[in-house]
Amino acid sequence: MVPLLILQIFLFPLTAGWMMTHWVDSRQTLALQETASHLGSSIQQVYSALNHQSISAGTVRSKLAVTAYIEGYAFTGNASLRAAEADSSQFLDITLKFLGNSIESTTSVTLGANVNWNADSEFMSNSTYANLVAEKLSNDTILMYFEGD
Questions:
Q1: Which of 20, 75, 95, 111 has the fewest CB atoms within 10 Å around its CB?
Q2: Which of 25, 39, 6, 20 is nearest to 106 (CA)?
Q3: 89/10: higher pLDDT
Q4: Pairwise CA distance, residues 40 & 50, whole Å
């Protein structure tokens, strides 16, 4: 009986610690996913506004209203375009990743065939100048990218 009690003394704290780690990781992943979805929605709205025929060539800078930190972690983001198989639309895959942590989250938004994304741009959450830039060119192509410090 004594060995069983000793085993429980060690097993219970280890199990509780593992469960708390799993719960924290899940909570942080969910918060990062929510932020990625918000970014995707913002990108899609700016694209839709500029894609209208009544809008002439020009540049729009949109301040991205996302938190600088999630549970004490700053995060970075990047995006890349991929073509849709069924039609001429494109998907923008947005990936956010915590700095100093291995947690990341990806979301996708649908954009039209006339969009280009600058893959070298990177979003930094704690940048004071984190913007989404969209340039509508005279040929109706829309170039989009993240702008920061």
A1: 20
A2: 39
A3: 89
A4: 16
Torsion of CA 85, 89, 92, 93, to 10 degrees: -20
Give 117's contacts (C-beta < 8 A, 6+ positions apart): 79, 80, 81, 92, 143, 144, 145
Residue that the structure tokens 């809008």 belong to: 55
pLDDT tens for each residue of 116-144: 999 889 999 998 888 999 999 999 999 99
Structure-token match 């994304």, residue found: 117
Compute the half-sphere exposure of residue 52: CA atoms within 13 Å on the CB side of its CA: 8
Q: Calculate mean pLDDT across residues 108-123.
A: 92
Strand partners, 144: 117, 134
Q: What is the dihedral of CA 2, 3, 7, 8, to 10 degrees?
A: -30
Average pLDDT value for the chain? 88
Where b means 16+ CB within 10 Å and e means fewer, 103-131 reads: bbbebebebeebbebeeebbbbbebeebb
Bridge-based pairing state of the strands 104-111 and 142-147:
unpaired
